[in-house]
Amino acid sequence: MGKLVDEQGRRVDGRGLNEMRPVKIEVGVLKNADGSAYIEHGKNKIIVAVYGPKEVHPRHLALPDRMFIRCRYHMSPFSVQERKSPQPSRREIELSKVIREALEAAIMIEEYPRTALDIFIEVLESDGGSRGASITAASVALANAGIPMRDMVASCAVGKIDGHIVLDLNDQEDKEGEVDLPVAYMPNLNRITLLQMDGKLLHEEFDRALDLAVHGCEQIYGIQRSALQDYYFKQDR
Amino acid sequence: MGKLVDEQGRRVDGRGLNEMRPVKIEVGVLKNADGSAYIEHGKNKIIVAVYGPKEVHPRHLALPDRMFIRCRYHMSPFSVQERKSPQPSRREIELSKVIREALEAAIMIEEYPRTALDIFIEVLESDGGSRGASITAASVALANAGIPMRDMVASCAVGKIDGHIVLDLNDQEDKEGEVDLPVAYMPNLNRITLLQMDGKLLHEEFDRALDLAVHGCEQIYGIQRSALQDYYFKQDR
Amino acid sequence: MGKLVDEQGRRVDGRGLNEMRPVKIEVGVLKNADGSAYIEHGKNKIIVAVYGPKEVHPRHLALPDRMFIRCRYHMSPFSVQERKSPQPSRREIELSKVIREALEAAIMIEEYPRTALDIFIEVLESDGGSRGASITAASVALANAGIPMRDMVASCAVGKIDGHIVLDLNDQEDKEGEVDLPVAYMPNLNRITLLQMDGKLLHEEFDRALDLAVHGCEQIYGIQRSALQDYYFKQDR
Amino acid sequence: MSLSRRSFVIERLRKERLLSLLAKGHRLDDRGLLDYRPVKIETNVIDKAEGSAKVDLGDTSVIAGVKVELDRPFKDTPDKGILIVNTEFLPFASPYIEPGPPDENAIELARVVDRGIRESGMVDLSKLAVKPGEQVYAIFADVDVLNIDGNLFDATSYAVVSALATAKIPEYEVDGDGTVKATGNIVQLPITTIPISITAAKIGDYIVFDPTEEEEAVIDTRLTIVFSEDNTLCAIQKGEPGSWTPDEIVNLIGEADGKAREIREIVKRSISP
Amino acid sequence: MSLSRRSFVIERLRKERLLSLLAKGHRLDDRGLLDYRPVKIETNVIDKAEGSAKVDLGDTSVIAGVKVELDRPFKDTPDKGILIVNTEFLPFASPYIEPGPPDENAIELARVVDRGIRESGMVDLSKLAVKPGEQVYAIFADVDVLNIDGNLFDATSYAVVSALATAKIPEYEVDGDGTVKATGNIVQLPITTIPISITAAKIGDYIVFDPTEEEEAVIDTRLTIVFSEDNTLCAIQKGEPGSWTPDEIVNLIGEADGKAREIREIVKRSISP
Amino acid sequence: MSLSRRSFVIERLRKERLLSLLAKGHRLDDRGLLDYRPVKIETNVIDKAEGSAKVDLGDTSVIAGVKVELDRPFKDTPDKGILIVNTEFLPFASPYIEPGPPDENAIELARVVDRGIRESGMVDLSKLAVKPGEQVYAIFADVDVLNIDGNLFDATSYAVVSALATAKIPEYEVDGDGTVKATGNIVQLPITTIPISITAAKIGDYIVFDPTEEEEAVIDTRLTIVFSEDNTLCAIQKGEPGSWTPDEIVNLIGEADGKAREIREIVKRSISP
């Protein structure tokens, strides 16, 4: 286990404690989907596509008062160091659920009763923070599909490494660090829609970490907005 | 292989040849089920719950002239010496079928056409004779659910160990003995609803064994009745 | 690796280069099926049975303008040298598809809209060329079921062994040879309904091989016709 | 593959007709109540299997193939060979079969046939441990059900028994340095007895042997009994809802014993070289 | 097993009724907003398991059984034992359960309970490598959910914690020649702390602890927090659509910490010998 | 994932329109009958894969990733490496995809692509046995289908070929004492040829290359031919119901050969360092 933070407060990839990895979002990357987005967040490379609102099959799953939302978070076999079986793992099943719940909080599901919405997330290459990057991109893909939302959902993680609370863990920091704390946040409504944690934090550390995560999400929100603006205004469509 | 019966006709757990292990039945142990029972028969610990009569899903399984009965016999992973996978084994699938058939003989299935009845059996701890104990408890759970029955179904096994025909094999006797012969029986109607055997018996031995099994079932029937009386009269509901 | 063709142009089983293995077809071998046939082609032993036209379940699979055709090619566990798991392999799934497509070309599917037809192929013993023998027998089973067809489909393979283009590879030739090229053919319409190849052929070799395959299929067609005539005229029904 | 259910109105009419026939001592196919349909057994029908047999019991048709491999023994029986019986209802065996993995009927069939053979001691598994604790013979008896017309238990049992009894397997020995190798000889399995399965069904107050599919659709209950050659019963399985009195069972076993002796002669004739 | 959905009209009516009660500081079962239902823990209920506990949290009832085997370690942790938590919703636990393998709810439940226990360091896995890199203890904590009346996260966590804390396992040692063998002693697992899971739910503007099934059907969002004994949080899981403000979360954690200390006393009393 | 079926009325209208266009020598997207859409290949797009390539063939988009491990060889090829091609239709690739494991379309796609590459001898598997009989390279070429607009066979084949041709794998050697260890060098796979897949479809009497999704919905039959660099055909697959005359096939192969040479130049340019 190498030291993750040096004396100058530099991290293994040269970042400062509160510094985010580079994030790049592209909108409308797939022809067939109703909406889509591609994100590179650090070394994460993720495509998210949205189909819907559409008819529900089988019909008995339709909800009389709101949209029925399905979400699949999936990792490609070549996205990780050791080839991953294409069958969904227990981790992928849990993440599909918490990501769906993080996004559903923002979607105006009551406007489309008896319809379905599919959110498909494919992690082509995985780095630390893939669930956050997935939510960030999914939110953009939903906007691209024209799904009415109360707010964007922006997401990133904070963590604790070598005793420091830091923003946006990369793969090595995630594996060798002490705490991982992913957060999803609606910046205009000031509301948290995903919160998970593993590792040990004192109460006071938690409070600082949550605050840092919220600031991180606000940065992500800026990048989401730029990506959508670039797509809709520069491409003039 | 130790000797299973000593010179005095005592078995490994101190019982005589025709002696049953202690049996304890509790009625109505689960809040959500329509009927339930818990049995301890030797070291068997089994919960049985009944849901129904209820609508059949999917509908095409509904039977126009009778109730559709499903039964699941399942062993918990921790119920046996070596952890068991939760997936149903071929043995569990066969037992689910023969137990269902043993109970269906007693249920007035023609009174509830186009409905379904679910019988769920969970073996929390397993000893010799778990299928018999399951049937015994299921019959009580059916009564607790108010399902009309022609008779109770009481069940126990007989077997052959060290050349003796004996009542109610425990785990060790089942594994090291020569013959296992589980029987389910309706005591008031004098009818056998489950009969299986493996191991080798002469015709004359079989006749004696069957007779002993019927007597065992009659004892079980007494315990079933007491349990139901305790529940309905002592608890005054 | 032994030599597969000797100086006299004889193959390992004594055949000449353009010689077919013995083929025997029996019609109407199963009582319950609507049509059936049994083929021995070399050491291949295959039963094919047909059910239909019949209702489609589930209904949404029904096609408004034609028959819905399903096909299952399956190998028995004891059909090959090392016991095969009964679960369908990827190879069996691909062959089920190409066999179905080879037969569908001949069936007047437009005459029975909204119906289904099941073609079940069971390879009891497998030799080289089992897909061809399956198609040959299936075509006879379809005729036996009274399914209207534009033409019979006759099938056999050609291949390249020791540099020679030869007809009808057996198991050893298939495994040790250079090329396998199965063909299905409608002899009266002069049309190819299945064509696969693996191994390397020059263009000129391919042209010769295809020509030889067509001649092989014409021989097979003669055997199909005899089998049907024997069944319908000799048995007088 | 699993069996789906059939029309109920037709079942009821059929049961009435059948009962009126049985009252006169007849069955739909003119057999007597305790008669079996013709039993036709062909062995060595699959060259690539170490043993095989096709059994036709009336229009019920099954084929059993035996494959033999070397494998590690089960932990609790290190000094015994392994015997596994598996059955598949081929999808063309009946119009009522649904696609999918073996259902409870196929699993019960395999397990009951397995128990009859295993408990009779037909194959002496203790002679099949090539190198005890390490390498033993694993015998797979796979059964394809080709056409269903009732009484699968007996037809399947006869097919597996015949395939095992006629199987030829490679002989292995353990070298001086402990490696297992083939001697080049082909030998028979160590067969000690020919167990015979007899199946009876009760329809109303009548008991019939070897029920057809038409009869099975309306029977109240079923009993399968397997007899070894040493005057013992070695396996029993009651099936279907419905019930038997203890006396009915005791009497039935007597009748079935006689029938088993008849059938055993047919099987033995078919498997003799 | 998976949970199917329920009637929407009834849910809406129930939510209105519940909100009007909460406005007066009451709940449907007369508890205060931050009260837990009675926690009843029985340990050593399954003789064949190395550890076991049945937990009743009101009418929610679960049973955890711990089985221990020797196994190869995971590649990336050669010098640590293995801990696996698995949950099954028994089909009789609720009328809304559908048959099948564990669904997302059962998987999330198992993973959240596992994380709380693992991250707290409750079981010192580094002491469970009998022969590092080759043979380690594999601890399976299987949970049967018997009856569902809300707050499965906490009930399941208490059951697994109690079963682990009271488990008795065979001791192994490594011989001079490197073979692993049982010493014959029975020992406890190396337990370092008792982590306690606390679950809160938000309904409208009200926050309640330990929600029942009736309440869960109408909650907006949920938060589960696991507390270790050393004044740390060791796991958090937000659940359900719906959202929290950062301030709500910070305040809630303060309240939950106090509640965790209360519950820990109950658990400790139940598991003390 | 599997593809579900589409509207039939629309298909029929589309076919009529397409045929009238083809009669004039045009296609819906203005291509000539034997033209390919633009082929765009990007390699090394996934850092964690040993090789990778994204191929856009018009709006059909696939990505192939190559992972390499050491593994035991297959029994019947102890002195050869292992090559496995697997394809997944990602659920967003088309509105007609249904969830589930790979269906017959995905399996056929993987097997046909695999055969073209394997039979061409593109990767010299005999050079991939690090320690023959014990440790060989296992090459997994996994393909994600990202967007479906027809002719998946060719797009997938180009992606796998490009990913393999540009893969960089760790070199291993066998020690004096027989243990396999990494040398620390990174080397290329032993590539001998670049096989090129060409797919044609017949609609009525017209033959087109590189059909789009719209065209595939109405084609009568399809033929995929793979060409090696040494003037040989190395794999063929006819698809869809419908049929070809022998003459049509012979002529088509001639045309396709020329097209393969064109495409091979594009692929070679894309994979050159």
Give a quick rundown of the structure:
By secondary structure, chain A is of the alpha+beta class. Chain A contains four helices and nine strands, in the order ββββαβαββαββα. Chain A has one domain: Ribosomal Protein S5, domain 2 (2-Layer Sandwich).
Task: Report on this structure.
The complex is a heterohexamer, with 3 copies of chain A (237 residues) and 3 copies of chain D (273 residues). By secondary structure, chain A is α+β, with helices and mostly antiparallel strands. Chain A has one domain (23-236): 2-Layer Sandwich (Ribosomal Protein S5, domain 2), CATH 3.30.230.70. Chain A has helices at residues 90-104, 130-144, 171-176, 203-234; strands spanning 23-27, 35-41, 44-55, 68-75, 115-125, 154-161, 164-167, 179-186, 191-202. In chain A, strand 6 and strand 7 form a beta hairpin. Chain D is of the alpha+beta class and 273 residues long. Chain D has a single domain, classed as Ribosomal Protein S5, domain 2. In chain D, the strands form 4 sheets. Chain D has a 5-stranded mixed beta sheet with strand order 2-3-4-7-5. The radius of gyration of chain D is 20 Å and the shape is elongated. In chain D, 50% of the residues are buried. Chains in contact: A-E, A-F, B-D, B-E, C-D, C-F. Strand 9 (191-202) of chain C pairs antiparallel with strand 13 of chain F.
